[in-house]
């Protein structure tokens, strides 16, 4: 098993970024001496707000990459809800466009949508689903583990003085700008799911979680494009030990 840390300059973010790259050992990859004709599937991962790409070190990400013969890349997406911030960096643009280009210049990664998948946990699952729905030309499938999806509800709670998913009212305004009209916007994954008909989704909801009903509702809207599984693991565990292995195996058709 192998893992490297990538640090590079992002012009979209106007600064450097860090990403963890998990992949099979070199003797398991089909790499020629002079070229890299074989391009590998890649799963792009989002951590939850309040975390970092380091969180994935506590999961079986490395083992999943080896067992399935794929690359798994997790970048730091900071405190942005995986969104093009109204007052801050354009993280959705970075993850969907720039990061892929940087990584493909350095690693044997496929640029075919059918071999590019996206996933996340917690608010990272929200970002992953949003990216998959908005960019089917980039991602063909998504795994969303113990997701937190209803940003309209999050914003309403914050307006009443609560700190939710590591955000308060002002920080949510920095992300979304107008937090009074999330419903029906491009930041509403339920509305996006109603309008978009592409992609396939593996959605999990932790039994008894405060956000399980949101995962069930999203699955209902996606209809036969989505698979739902109830689990005993929550995003707060920072583990996804069992869930992640099943989800990646589903992506790879195993």
Give a short synopsis of this structure.
This protein is of the alpha/beta class. It contains eight helices and eight strands; from the N terminus they run βββαβαβαβαααβαβα. Helix 6 runs parallel beside helix 7.
What does this structure look like?
The radius of gyration is 17 Å and the shape is globular. It is an alpha/beta fold and 254 residues long. The chain is built from eight helices and eight strands, in the order βββαβαβαβαααβαβα. Helix 1 (61-68) packs parallel to helix 8 (241-251) and helix 6 packs parallel to helix 7 (212-222). It has an eight-stranded mixed β-sheet with strand order 1-2-4-3-5-6-7-8, with helices on both faces. 32% of the residues lie in helices and 20% in strands. Helix 1 links the parallel strand 3 and strand 4 (71-75). The chain has a single domain (2-30, 38-251), classed as Rossmann fold (3-Layer(aba) Sandwich), CATH 3.40.50.
């Amino acid at each position: 098993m192998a893992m490297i840390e990538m640090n590079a300059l992002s012009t979209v973010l106007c600064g450097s970024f860090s990403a963890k790259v998990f992949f099979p050992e070199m003797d398991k990859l089909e790499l020629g001496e002079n070229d890299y004709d074989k391009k590998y599937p890649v799963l792009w991962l989002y951590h939850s707000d309040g975390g970092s790409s380091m969180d994935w070190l506590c999961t079986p990400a490395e083992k999943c990459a080896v067992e399935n013969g794929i690359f798994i890349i997790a970048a730091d997406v900071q405190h942005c809800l995986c969104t093009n911030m109204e007052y801050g960096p354009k993280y959705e643009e970075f993850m969907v466009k720039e990061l892929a280009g940087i990584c493909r210049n350095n690693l044997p990664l496929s640029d075919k949508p059918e071999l590019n998948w996206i996933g996340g946990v917690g608010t990272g699952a929200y970002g992953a689903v949003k990216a998959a729905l908005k960019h089917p030309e980039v991602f063909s499938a998504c795994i969303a583990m113990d997701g937190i999806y209803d940003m309209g509800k999050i914003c309403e709670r914050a307006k009443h003085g609560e700190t939710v998913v590591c955000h308060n009212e002002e920080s949510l305004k920095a992300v979304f700008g107008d937090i009074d009209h999330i419903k029906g916007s491009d930041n509403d994954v339920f509305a996006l799911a109603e309008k978009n008909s592409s992609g396939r989704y593996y959605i999990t909801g932790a039994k008894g979680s405060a956000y399980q009903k949101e995962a069930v509702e999203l699955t209902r809207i996606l209809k036969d494009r989505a698979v739902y599984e109830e689990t005993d693991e929550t995003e707060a565990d920072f583990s996804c030990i069992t869930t992640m292995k099943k989800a990646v195996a589903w992506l790879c058709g195993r």
